[in-house]
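Protein Record: Sequence and Backbone Structure Tokens
======================================================
Scope: a single protein chain, as residues and as a discrete description of its fold.
Tokens: labelled as protein backbone structure tokens, with as many entries as the chain has residues.
Position: the record begins directly beneath this header, with no further notes in between.
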Amino acid sequence: MSTTTAIAVAPLTIEDAEALVTAARRAAEAADVTVSVTVLDAGGHLLAFRRDDRAVLISGETSTRKAYTALQLNAPTADLVDAVQPGGLFHTLPTALDRPLLFIAGGLPVHRDGRLIGAIGVGGGAPEQDHGFATAAVEALA
């Protein structure tokens, strides 16, 4: 009989979430872009959210949807844009679920020791900018 040992991976903490928000906002500020940042834990629950005073209001919603999409599919939203185009693997997925997904760059899953522990979404800049700000945040957490 073989035994397997489960290795516990620390969950995403509120301190981690705040560090992600801070790092993403710093990257956005350096580019002179106002953004909203959402951080979700592995269960999809909100851990942190921040919208810059001058960020467009819809950026709050887009950052949250990007984080949720990255979490549910365990993939950067930038990598999923083509998958929802006509003929793509996930073409009908955005309308098949109750929860709103958003296939625009700016959402990233967050991993620790190879395990999915949460996600970050950034909205307010151009999609490529939002992706860069989220990437900077995840890299700062590592």
Summary: The two ends are 37 Å apart (CA to CA). Residues 81 and 103 are 5 Å apart (CA to CA). The helical segments are 14-30, 58-73, 93-96, 127-141. The chain has a mean pLDDT of 90.
